Amino acid sequence: MSTSLSFFSSTIFLSNPKSNIHSQKQRVFFKPLTATTTIRSEANATATATIPILSFDGTEVGSTTLNIKSAPLDTARAVVHRGLTTDLRNARAGTASTLTRAQVRGGGIKPYPQKKTGRARQGSKRTPLRPGGGVVFGPKPKDWSVKINKKEKRLAISTALSSAVENAIVVEEFGDKFDKPKTKEFIELMRRWGLDPKEKALFLMTEVDENVILSSRNIRTLKMLTPRTLNLFDILDSEKLVFTKSAVEFLNERYGNDDNDNEWEFEEEEQDGGEVEESAESSE
């Protein structure tokens, strides 16, 4: 899986936008649709964007407003980095284990005589110097998980969304448009919306129809997420974000203000344990 993340190309995460330090990591996005974005770098900054709404045929039928919180420019990169590293650490199983020389089977007999062999003396087959012997300072089961506050994690997701809003579109609900699973028709739909099937795209829908799942699951560059499975890694790893109208309402309600801190709490707790397992490989 590619480890390059799309937030390197966003000026919100660069201390000096004119610097070419990250030039090799930047990706070239296709020209986004027109979106008006306003970001205020205050203590509780808010990113407000007007995004066009596209119909199933690909025509613009209106616009909607995405109004979510964003971390101040001087701390945005640190907040997102902490949220991402926390998710990746919590996804590690930590089950890697090796045997020391005390745990390896055998070794009760001396491998060869002490003298007259011309070789170094050895008293056990379990020594780390022999193949099949014990391992010195090898890994043992370990808990890699770290804690992050709910509000901090929520701010990291909303900041990442606000930085990628220029590459986002909103579409009308299309779950009932597929009478049967057909990947070819889904690819044609993506192209009508200006999406390249070869580039990574994230679809956020509150409800996903079964035919939509079956039609899109063979497109390896596409991620179909719901509010329960929304995670920071997939947001940063995507080059295009596609929201339905109901998904925009969810984002405004969930990440727009502090009045609804207790809402969607169950979903957040559910995804803490395994939201990145499907999107990032566990490293031991």
Average of the residue pLDDT scores: 79
| Cα end-to-end separation | 16 Å
User: Based on DSSP secondary structure assignment, what is the total number of beta strands?
Assistant: 7
* Secondary structure tally, helices: 7
So what's the overall shape? Answer: elongated
The fraction of residues assigned to DSSP E strands is: 5-15%
* Helical/strand content category: alpha/beta
Main sheet specs: 7 strands, mixed
The percentage helix is 25-40%
Low-confidence stretches: 1-12, 15-43, 260-264, 266-284
Computed CA radius of gyration, to the nearest angstrom = 25 Å
User: What is the H-and-E element order?
Assistant: EEEHHEHEHEHEHH
Q: In words, what does this structure look like?
A:
With 284 residues, the protein is of the alpha/beta class. Helix content is 25%, strand content 15%. The protein is built from 7 helices and 7 strands. Strands 1, 2, 3, 4, 5, 6 and 7 form a 7-stranded mixed beta sheet that branches. A hairpin with a 5-residue loop joins strand 1 and strand 2. It starts with 35 loop residues before the first strand and ends in a 10-residue tail after the last helix. The N terminus and C terminus are likely disordered.
